[in-house]
Amino acid sequence: MKTVLILGAGRSSSALISYLLNEATRQEWRVMVGDLSVQAAAERLEGSPVGRALRFDAGEERASREAIAQADVVISLLPAMLHPVIARYCLQEGKHLLTASYISPEMKALHPEALGKGLLFLNECGLDPGIDHMSAMQVIDRIKVNGGELTSFESFTGGVIAPDTDIDNPWRYKFTWNPRNVVMAGQSTARYLHDGQYKYIPYQQLFKRITAVHVPGYGAYEGYANRDSLGYRETYGLEGVRTLLRGTLRKEGFCSAWDVLVQLGCCDDTYVMHGVEDLTHRAFIDAFLESDAGVSVEEKLMRRFALAPQGAELTRLQWSGLLEEQPVGLATGTPAQILEHILSKKWALHPADKDFIVMWHRFGYTQGGVKRTIQASLVATGEDSVRTAMAKTVGLPLAIAARLLLEGKIAARGVLIPIAPEFYNPILAELSTLGITLAEEEA
């Protein structure tokens, strides 16, 4: 009996586990879910007779290896820093490993050993990274096969909230992923290529230098640059391209309001603030403004950032509760930790909330001396706060890859990402049957 071991029963695991339980029932496989909380693992299995919940702690080597030894394929949804640990256990036990995380240098260094043992360590097979790679490479390879030459590639992906969710929310955003990652986003200088020039955006400018994106049928969005776009020239085979930019997508208006928090220093995680137990939301914001007892916090913000009294930025800050006299509710914390805690009070998904995934690519190329452009977009909507679009788009590519591997339909081995047709064609084809499809427009 073939067995899949899924490590981690968090918010991104629901669609993955559901898919594999269905396959296990159909193909007489077994699904094991390991988590620090056996109860959380059991809840994800929903009493399935082909499932088994177990406690899993990556720091306990013997027990971890015993669990991994029972599996044919291991899927890790654990924090990315633990993937190299799991990978070494998989090498010792001779098991395949799949993750949705970026390949780290430690993981990449395992390629020769994985290849030598005939193992596949597939990484970046989720949403972003994952579906973005696969959908981009499918179009890029098609352009090349048809004799086109790529001149530019831009790609943005984001998780926001569905148009009919929390309609009074001016940010059009809630935490659909790790809140800390949202607060800490972009704190390294972004690097990209524009019209043959290397460009750099320091953190202080990141949310000012944005790209306007129109998604057909869904309106105006804006993208800010990811940390490093340049590494994808070689990955995507775009060595001759003159523009290359990858980034994160948000609804129009998000970035200018978020930039106020960045410029204030609210996203700083390098020091602990004093007197946190006595802070209110309003006092937290005021702590970063000039001292002037006769001027309100709103007036200070308007003066410092040239904001309009009823403007979009101030409206968003007020809606988030950042200017209320409500206790923060923490005993200690860095500015970033305090901001995350405050925002979580308004930005947490409610049970009936639906999240929304938006992905957008733009390919510039020449064919027969004619300049052409392809714009492609993908959207996905969650069902509720558990069966989220984020869980679907992160988990389903991993689940499909695991099924293909167990069925002997993937021959590639070593430490890889899914940029070859062997991966992207069957995975994207099945995602399309599940309602996750890239729509293209050519000009």
Largest sheet entry: 7 strands, parallel
Q: How many DSSP helices?
A: 16
Q: Which CATH class of the largest domain?
A: Alpha Beta
Helix content: 25-40%
- General form: globular
Q: Do you know the CATH architecture of the largest domain? A: 2-Layer Sandwich
Content of β-strand:
15-25%
The CA-CA distance between the termini, in Å, is 51 Å
Describe the protein's topology:
Layout: E1 3-7, H1 14-27, E2 30-35, H2 38-45, E3 51-55, H3 61-69, E4 73-76, H4 83-93, E5 96-99, H5 105-108, H6 111-116, E6 120-122, H7 131-145, E7 149-161, H8 179-183, E8 190-194, E9 197-201, E10 211-215, E11 219-225, H9 232-235, E12 243-251, H10 254-264, H11 281-286, H12 297-305, H13 312-319, H14 335-347, E13 355-367, E14 370-381, H15 389-406, E15 414-416, H16 421-433, E16 439-442
Parallel strand pairs: 1-2, 1-4, 2-3, 4-5, 5-6, 6-15, 7-12
Antiparallel strand pairs: 7-13, 8-9, 10-11, 11-12, 13-14, 14-16
Task: Summarize the model shown.
The chain is of the alpha/beta class and 443 residues long. Helices cover 35% and strands 23% of the residues.
